[in-house]
Every structure is written in C-alpha cells, then in structure tokens.
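Input/output pair, single chain:
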Amino acid sequence: MKIVPYVIAMAIFVLGMFLFGLAFTVTVFQGAIFIAGILAIALSLAIPFHFLRN
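Output:
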C-alpha cells in the first residue's frame, strides 16, 4: 500500500508547481498563491518522508 501515499504526494507536488506558475500570471494575491505553492510542495515532500520511511 505504499503506492497510495506516493500518488497523493505526486498530485500535491504537481498542484504546487501549478500554483508557482499561476502566481506569475494572476494580478491579485500573487504572494498568497506563491506561498500556497511552497506549502503544497513542502507537504508533498513530507508525506513520503513520514509514511515511506522504511
């Protein structure tokens, strides 16, 4: 069952990369969207470190 955390983490990572790109194209809340991208990527890295640390 190690594939489920991997798929979730990969989806969150891709979402974070999307938010990085979106932050440079919108005209409002650029900083908040960029920070949300950073937090999403940090979360996507924390999931495998926590659940897959065998």
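The mean pLDDT is 91. The first helix runs from residue 3 to 23.
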